[in-house]
């Protein structure tokens, strides 16, 4: 019996080693461990053994069975590994990946979104207003003289009914102040229109973002802090801001904002990027007249406003040399902003 | 405005460093946009005459010259140039001269021969960008004259003057600004100071017929002038700032304008008929201006006229027929104040501007009219001789602009957020010519821009500079607005559409489009622009699709036939909701990107578009078959009963017209139709028990839509039915497998209970119920 078992073990292990695939392996398993397999048959023979031999032979039987079982598992794993390896052998890993269609948001949208995120961080909320405006919202309310050149038919698009396409997003400041009393802390992006023939640096339509903060105790120092913070966040901590006094009808004092930053890629040059100023008391007075109250009492509240064009900023930041690319919708251009 | 630094130096002490001066001005809001240098700035360079030129004994290319430099002894100079001859006058840099590039001239030996200086080219003196050989000077040049005299060094600043600061449109005005910014004194020449308080006598031969347009007009006659070329100093000053010298009289008027800011005009007295009339033009009156062009005038245009005809377009330009010429003996010098808005309108309507109109339309100093006249008369007598009337004749009175402006130091500090000292305020405002008054300050007449407290605060801010204002970083909590939510919604859609998978590119098209681009999308409520730039930009887009289809054509022509574009923007229609935010898609070309896996992917079709819209998320919207004049396949998007958008495939003929190479799929949906993103997703309990799927295949008439079959299944309200999925649609036009007018559709129906694992029996019963329902409602047979 002992000898028989040892022989069986040797035979089974040899058969396993010879099994070339999983089917052969299964056949080997059945022929030894199956219900009518050789090892099972020997187990049957246990009954006829003398009592004294039973424990020893029983143990040996178990050893053989477990050795064969383990060998089958090992052989199976080896065969699987071999098959897996063959299945993936020789794949050219340098083949390109299967492409998914990938789109992109427009560079102006991306620029705008960066700006909005920074202003929101500073506690500004959004406001909007119509593209079609009346002269009062676009000019009168903003302290622009009746014969100001911007009101010309040469410079501004008019509708037959005398309304116009807004030339600046400052109209949204006006609309907001009409609706709500201070405090007001808004930014207002939108399209503006100027009657300019298109060339590499001009479009009859471009995108502006405007900001307004009116409250008690707002100072020029707040404006300076806001502008400096914004450009540092946008362009990096090296961004330097120069506020150069200027003239706008609706702010006083007024400033043009020049920026110097490595991100702008213009070396040591100051670039004029924005305008700003303290809201002119005349704007508040006209607002009170329109509202019929004194919510914007210039003795009580002060405010600042700022605005800049997004196309110009996007052009400088991404090296675009022709503004018309922004509205040509050439996919070869748009796809560069993934 | 061009400003000469040499001229300024006569009026105020300015820093030697030009860059520092420019920085000072720019920081105070007087932006220097350009700096131009001219002339010779090198000292110890004199006019020399070549007396003798001999070959250098030791160098083929050099000559040894003897030159006269105005001193007693001729100098020996070794020279490499060849372009001169003996007798020529050339610049000679003497030992000690420092040439551009910090190159010092000294006595030295060149190839063994002593050279006591260097003869120079124009380039070496910084007079020209490049020049070969010596600069040969005119023969009349006087030997020994420093080159700095012959070519005076000059720096011209190009200054941007903002429209509120007409007082800076003169050298005196600019000098005053610099003096205040620097805290240094203004040093006006006695000749200018002497004109202060110039008087006049009432004129009976000047008729102010439009006093609101011209409240003050003065004229002064000078008889017996000798018109001729201006002296060098006068010509030099004008030419330095880019004005052409005409003759001594005209040059004086221009000079005084540049000096004091008051435009002046000289008429030839002999060509005038009777007195001066300042009147509006007669209807249809034409006028030949000095620029040689005729202008037809309207009654709202102001002219200076005599009894017979117009002599000048007031404040804008004089006339061809009354100007000063070589033949002029007697002149009449005009100095006046015109109302700025009048001049601005005339100039704009006639498209005619001049140095005079530029100043008048911004506002000149009314108190400067007579002094400027006096200054010009003195100069005319100096350069052209003649005899002037003792005083100017004047009509009207100069308007007074000297308001008393309240000023509170506390207010100033509150607006600026900076501690400004009272003495600083006094110094700045006094420097700008303001006088302290009882309640505040009185502004001078040349500063009409100063009328309110805030104007004075601005002046202080300009001078102390933004650097003196500490930046404050302080926020305020502000509640989100409806605009915030709309923006976030639009951004959510943009992110989805551009994300990998959907892969659309965002376009931004112009709001103004051509009417003909709308041919395929007829809209009745078009809004037009009254003054379009051209026909291509004449109407406000009532839809985003024309712009996107134009982009499609452009891209196809540029070689990109596979295109997925979207735009979110405003559309415009006459009526109640005039401006609306809209989302549009255009898709043409491959349904998936081509690659080595699939070199020729199928072109996208209507169902790909539907899939894209579904991926975008159309919660609350339904798609209903519809018709549209531009679409071959069209569905309407509805929200309840309201139509909120369209989607479909463009008529093939239209697509071909756009040069499209594949079906063109389009959609446009009002942005308001999209439900706001929920603050948090909504959770439904996950199924605890397994689902069972049974397939069902039907043969129905081809005209029965899938939607109807699905509706019948849903109408059964079978409680165990958890899902319906269409997985096959089959037709056989040959009628071989199924009749040609029939189609086979197959669904996978999923059954599930939320309470227990379903038995086969339960599933079979539910499935049978649905089959019976279908059988009862539709003309169909089952394929088993």
From the structure above, extract its key features.
heterodimer, A: alpha+beta, two-stranded antiparallel sheet, B: alpha+beta, 19 helices, 27% strand, elongated
Tell me about this structure:
The complex is a heterodimer of chains A (338) and B (784). Chain A is built from twelve helices and nine strands. With 338 residues, chain A is α+β, with helices and mostly antiparallel strands. Chain A has a seven-stranded mixed β-sheet, sandwiched between helices. In chain A, α1 packs parallel to α4 and α5 crosses α10 (310-318). Chain B is of the alpha+beta class and 784 residues long. Chain B has 19 helices and 42 strands. In chain B, the strands form eleven sheets. Chain B has a seven-stranded mixed β-sheet, with helices on both faces. In chain B, strands 13, 15, 16, 23, 24 and 25 form a six-stranded mixed β-sheet that branches. In chain B, β20 (302-305) and β21 form a beta hairpin. The termini of chain B are far apart. The mean pLDDT of chain B is 93. At the A-B interface, α5, β1, β4, β5 and α8 of A face α8, α11, α13, α14 and β29 of B.
């Amino acid at each position: 019996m002992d000898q028989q078992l040892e022989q069986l073990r040797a035979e089974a292990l040899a058969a396993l080693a010879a099994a070339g695939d999983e089917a052969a392996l299964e056949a080997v398993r059945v022929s030894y461990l199956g219900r009518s397999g050789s090892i099972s048959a020997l187990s049957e023979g246990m009954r006829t053994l003398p009592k004294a031999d039973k424990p020893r032979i029983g143990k040996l039987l178990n050893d053989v069975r477990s050795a064969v079982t383990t060998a089958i598992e090992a052989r199976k794993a080896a065969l699987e590994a071999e098959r897996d390896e063959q299945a993936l052998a020789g794949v050219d890993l340098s083949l390109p990946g299967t492409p998914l269609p990938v789109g992109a948001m427009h560079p102006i949208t991306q620029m705008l979104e960066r700006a909005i995120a920074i202003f929101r961080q500073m506690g500004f909320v959004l406001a909007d207003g119509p593209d079609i405006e009346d002269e009062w919202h676009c000019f009168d309310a903003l302290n622009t003289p009746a014969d100001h050149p911007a009101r010309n038919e040469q410079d501004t698009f008019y509708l037959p009914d005398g309304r116009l396409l807004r030339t600046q997003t400052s109209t949204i400041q006006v609309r907001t102040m009409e609706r709500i009393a201070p405090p007001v802390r808004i930014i207002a992006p939108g399209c503006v229109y100027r009657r300019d023939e298109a060339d590499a640096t001009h479009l009859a339509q471009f995108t502006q973002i405007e900001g307004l903060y009116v409250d008690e105790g707002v100072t020029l120092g707040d404006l300076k802090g806001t502008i400096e913070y914004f450009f540092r966040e946008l362009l990096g901590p090296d961004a330097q801001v120069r506020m150069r006094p200027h003239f706008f009808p609706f702010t006083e004092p007024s400033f043009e904002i020049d920026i110097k930053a490595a991100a702008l890629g213009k070396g040591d040059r100051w670039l004029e990027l924005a305008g700003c100023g303290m809201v002119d008391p005349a704007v508040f007075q006209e607002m009170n007249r329109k509202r019929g109250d004194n919510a914007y009492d210039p003795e009580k509240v002060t405010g600042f406003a700022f605005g800049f064009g997004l196309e110009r900023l996007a052009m400088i930041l991404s090296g675009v040399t022709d503004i018309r690319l922004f509205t040509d919708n050439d996919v070869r251009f748009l796809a560069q902003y993934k | 405005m061009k400003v000469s630094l040499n001229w300024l130096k006569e009026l105020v002490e300015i820093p030697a460093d030009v860059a520092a001066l420019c920085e000072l001005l720019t920081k105070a809001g007087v932006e220097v946009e350009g700096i131009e240098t001219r002339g010779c700035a090198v000292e110890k360079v004199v006019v020399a005459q070549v007396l003798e030129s001999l070959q250098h004994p030791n160098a083929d290319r050099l000559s040894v010259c003897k030159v006269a430099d105005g001193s007693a002894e001729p100098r020996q100079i070794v020279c490499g140039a060849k372009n001169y001859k003996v007798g020529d006058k050339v610049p000679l840099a003497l030992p000690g001269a420092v040439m551009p590039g910090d190159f010092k001239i000294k006595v030295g030996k060149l190839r063994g021969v002593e050279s006591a200086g260097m003869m120079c080219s124009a380039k070496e003196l910084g007079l020209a960008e490049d020049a070969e050989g010596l600069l040969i000077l005119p023969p009349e040049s006087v030997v020994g004259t420093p080159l700095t005299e012959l070519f005076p060094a000059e720096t011209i600043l190009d200054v941007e003057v903002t429209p509120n600061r007409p007082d800076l449109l003169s050298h005196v005005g600019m000098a005053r600004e610099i003096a205040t910014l620097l805290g240094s004194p203004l040093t006006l020449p006695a000749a200018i100071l002497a004109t202060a308080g110039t008087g006049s006598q009432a004129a009976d031969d000047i008729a102010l017929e439009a006093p609101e347009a011209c409240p003050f007009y003065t004229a002064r006659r000078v008889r017996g002038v000798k018109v001729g070329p201006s002296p060098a100093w006068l010509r030099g000053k004008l030419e330095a700032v880019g004005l052409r010298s005409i003759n001594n009289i005209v040059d004086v008027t221009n000079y005084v304008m540049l000096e004091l800011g008051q435009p002046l005009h000289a008429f030839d007295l002999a060509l005038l008929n009777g007195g001066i009339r300042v009147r509006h033009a007669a209807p249809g009156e034409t006028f030949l201006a000095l620029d040689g062009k005729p202008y037809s005038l309207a009654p709202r245009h102001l002219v200076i006229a005599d009894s017979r005809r117009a002599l000048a377009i007031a404040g804008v330009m004089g006339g061809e027929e009354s100007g000063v010429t070589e033949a002029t003996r007697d002149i009449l010098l005009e100095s006046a104040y015109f109302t700025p808005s009048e001049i601005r309108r005339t100039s704009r309507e006639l498209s005619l501007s001049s140095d005079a109109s530029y100043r008048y339309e911004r506002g000149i100093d009314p108190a400067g009219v007579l002094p400027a006249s006096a200054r010009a008369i003195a100069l005319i007598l100096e350069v052209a001789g003649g005899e002037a009337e003792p005083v100017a004749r004047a009509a009207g009175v100069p308007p007074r602009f000297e308001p008393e402006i309240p000023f509170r130091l506390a207010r100033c500090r509150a607006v600026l957020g900076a501690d400004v000292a009272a003495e600083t305020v006094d110094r700045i405002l006094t420097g700008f010519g303001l006088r302290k008054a009882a309640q505040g300050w009185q502004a001078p007449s040349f500063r009409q821009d100063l009328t309110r407290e805030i104007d004075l605060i601005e002046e202080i801010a300009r001078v102390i500079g933004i650097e003196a204002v500490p930046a404050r970083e302080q926020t305020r909590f502000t509640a989100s607005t409806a605009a915030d939510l709309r923006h976030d919604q639009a951004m959510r859609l943009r992110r989805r559409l551009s994300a990998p998978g959907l892969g659309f590119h965002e376009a931004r098209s112009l709001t103004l489009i051509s009417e003909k681009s709308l041919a395929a999308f007829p809209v009745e409520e078009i809004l037009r622009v009254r003054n379009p730039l051209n026909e291509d930009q004449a109407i406000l887009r009532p839809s985003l699709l024309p712009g996107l289809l134009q982009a499609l054509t452009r891209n196809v022509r540029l070689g990109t036939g596979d295109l997925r574009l979207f735009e979110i923007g405003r559309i415009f229609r006459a009526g109640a909701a005039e401006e609306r935010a809209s989302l549009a898609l255009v898709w043409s070309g491959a349904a998936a990107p081509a690659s080595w896996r699939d070199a020729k992917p199928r072109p996208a079709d209507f169902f790909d578009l539907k899939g894209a819209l579904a991926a975008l998320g159309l919660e609350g919207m339904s798609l209903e078959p519809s018709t549209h004049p531009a679409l071959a396949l069209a569905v309407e998007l509805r929200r309840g009963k309201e139509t909120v958008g369209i989607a479909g495939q463009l008529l093939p003929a239209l697509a071909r017209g756009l040069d499209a190479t594949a079906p063109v799929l389009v959609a446009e949906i009002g942005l308001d139709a999209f439900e706001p993103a929920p603050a948090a997703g909504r959770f439904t309990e996950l199924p605890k028990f397994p689902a069972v799927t049974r397939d069902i295949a039907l043969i129905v008439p081809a005209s029965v839509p899938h939607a109807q079959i699905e509706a019948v299944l849903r109408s059964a309200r079978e409680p165990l039915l958890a899902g319906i999925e269409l997985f096959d649609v089959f037709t056989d036009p040959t009628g071989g497998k199924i009749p040609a007018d029939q189609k086979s559709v197959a669904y996978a129906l999923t059954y599930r209970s939320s309470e227990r694992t379903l038995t086969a029996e339960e599933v079979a019963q539910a499935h049978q119920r649905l089959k019976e329902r279908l059988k009862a409602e539709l003309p169909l047979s089952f394929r088993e």
